[in-house]
Amino acid sequence: MTIRVALVGCGAWGSNLLRVLEQSPRAAVIAVADTRALQRRHARDLSPGAEVVASLGEALALGVDAVVIATPAPTHATLAITAMDAGADVFVEKPLAMTIADAERCAQRAEARGRIGMVGHLLRYHPAVTRLVEICRGGALGPLEHVEAARRSVNGDRSASALWTLGPHDLSVISAIDPAAIATLAASGPASGADALVSLTLETGLSARISLSRASAAKERRFAVIGRDHAAIFDDVRAPDRVLLGRPTRRRGAPTEIAITGEATVAWHEPLALEIDHFLRCVDERTPPLTGFGDGVIVVRALAWAEAALHRRDDGAGDLAPLA
């Protein structure tokens, strides 16, 4: 079955999505919608066979099976619900919404309408991350103790929130490794929002520390999982095609050090192409996505709690707090 797709939002990331959709044998791009004239002209170059329109409503009127949303985050929930109400399955770039209530509303509407709802948690489709999750959940590291993650961009948009733009990636992977609920969470960072440090513990006892920056001196994309017996590291900058394996060394009062002892290589495929192919296959086969709207709710809930923790720190309140 060929899926008739409409893309909403043809900015920098929407253009990448459009490229992948055009290359997919599962998709026929029927429409591209964008409110901006410049982006509409760009869409015509990328997708000459599609109708290029200004709104989601115009795209839906053309008769589509699925809608891919790559607009600014505050519009995600409203557009997703509009598309589902019109009978379309929906892929939404991360984050699913900007509030817990809106994220839950999207998940509830998808269930009520019988629609496929998927969030673009891209890192979950990275071949090395897929392998990392398998290693962690398979018990090869022993009982899991701690996650140390860093997602730091060079020359990023300092006005954009590091928490909401970068945080979904690592939070989604943590949830994949250990789906337990968050028990405590703390966050700190400057008022500008260009940097954030999130610390959390899950009800299983697994702890995590996530360092995020939109304005770092060096690019870093690193995710380390430390178990009682072994450790595994995904480094998307230095070794994107493998998972590094090692043995942790613990010293009182010092960070855990990891001595690399081996690696697990993976077959490389573009994560975005894998992600979109997964969505289209779920639409065709009516199967639940790996990163469905339920996963989106989990991540938005953690982001909202972290943002609230940042505000509490601004008010002089304490940080690492249990969550109701």
Structural write-up:
There is one protein chain. The strands form 2 sheets. Strands 14-13-12-11-7-10-9-8-15 form a 9-stranded mixed sheet. It is of the alpha/beta class. Helices cover 35% and strands 31% of the residues. The protein has 2 domains: 3-121 and 272-292, 3-Layer(aba) Sandwich (Rossmann fold), CATH 3.40.50.720; 124-270 and 304-314, Dihydrodipicolinate Reductase, domain 2 (2-Layer Sandwich), CATH 3.30.360.10. The longest helix has 22 residues, at 293-314. The protein contains 9 helices and 15 strands. It has helices at residues 12-23, 37-46, 56-60, 76-85, 100-113, 127-137, 162-177, 271-285, 293-314; strands at 3-8, 27-33, 51-53, 66-69, 89-93, 117-120, 144-154, 182-188, 195-202, 207-216, 220-227, 231-235, 239-249, 257-265, 321-322. The protein is globular, with a radius of gyration of 20 Å.
- Percentage of residues in strands: 25-35%
Helix vs. strand class: alpha/beta
- What's the overall geometry? globular
* Biggest sheet architecture: 9 strands, mixed
**Whole-number count of domains:** 2
Give the radius of gyration: 20 Å
- Nearest-integer average pLDDT: 94
The CATH class designation of the largest domain is Alpha Beta
Q: Which stretches of 5+ consecutive residues score pLDDT under 50?
A: none
Order of helices and strands: EHEHEHEHEHEHEHEEEEEEEHHE
Could you tell me the number of beta strands?
15
Within the CATH hierarchy, at the fold level, what is the topology of the largest domain?
Answer: Dihydrodipicolinate Reductase, domain 2
Q: In the CATH hierarchy, what is the architecture of the largest domain at level 2?
A: 2-Layer Sandwich
